[in-house]
Amino acid sequence: MSTTLNIRKTTPEEVGTLLELFEEARHIMRADGNLQQWTSGYPSEELIRQEIEAGNSYVCTDKEGNVVGTFAFIVGEDPTYRIIYEGEWLENVSTYGTIHRLAGKRDGHGVAAACINWCYQQVPNLRADTHRDNRILQHILTKHGFRYCGIIHLLNGDERLAYQKI
């Protein structure tokens, strides 16, 4: 595995690759005791295609061009972040970018760091959220300078732990 990863927009031809990455991520989460996140076929092929079309889906590639990770990055207000419970955002005025659906190959070392660093270069005000049982992502976010801010609720009402890096 190369230590240098590149970030680029996902192409429509890579939907199958992303579905495989998300399946591998589900296995990693289940092995770590996170049994509730990304269930019932989430994220769906339809959502992946919508994010690619909107220009919000990205892949991490190694020096050979192999896709080793993926994430969605959206700049602008996320409606699920309007109300935060049991805390507050570190900064709630400036434009922010939100990282969603970060996933990498089991041996994809450096995917999270490459994603976070790239996103921070685009917008130095980042937000992310994760399931309470996703200890892996909670550790990654904290390690890379995110601070826990409180609880948000997804559009379907599910609770998520919210983080911000400024």
Question: Could you describe the 3D structure shown?
Answer:
- This protein is α+β, with helices and mostly antiparallel strands and 166 residues long.
- Helices cover 29% and strands 27% of the residues.
- It contains four helices and seven strands.
- The relative contact order is 0.19.
- The mean pLDDT is 94.
Quickly list its features:
single chain; 166 residues; alpha+beta; Aminopeptidase; 7-stranded mixed beta sheet; 4 helices
- CATH class group: Alpha Beta
CATH topology category name: Aminopeptidase
User: Percent of residues in beta strands?
Assistant: 25-35%
Strand order, main sheet: write it out.
1-2-3-4-5-7-6
Order of H and E elements: EHHEEEHEHEE
What is the first-to-last residue Cα distance?
30 Å
User: How would a textbook summarize the main sheet?
Assistant: 7 strands, mixed
Alpha plus pi helix count: 4
Low-confidence spans: pLDDT under 50, at least 5 residues? none
Q: What does the overall shape look like? A: globular
CATH architecture: 3-Layer(aba) Sandwich
Q: Which class of secondary structure composition applies to the elements? A: alpha+beta
The amount of helix comes to 25-40%
- Rg over C-alpha atoms, rounded to the nearest angstrom: 15 Å
How many separate structural domains?
Answer: 1
Mean pLDDT metric: 94
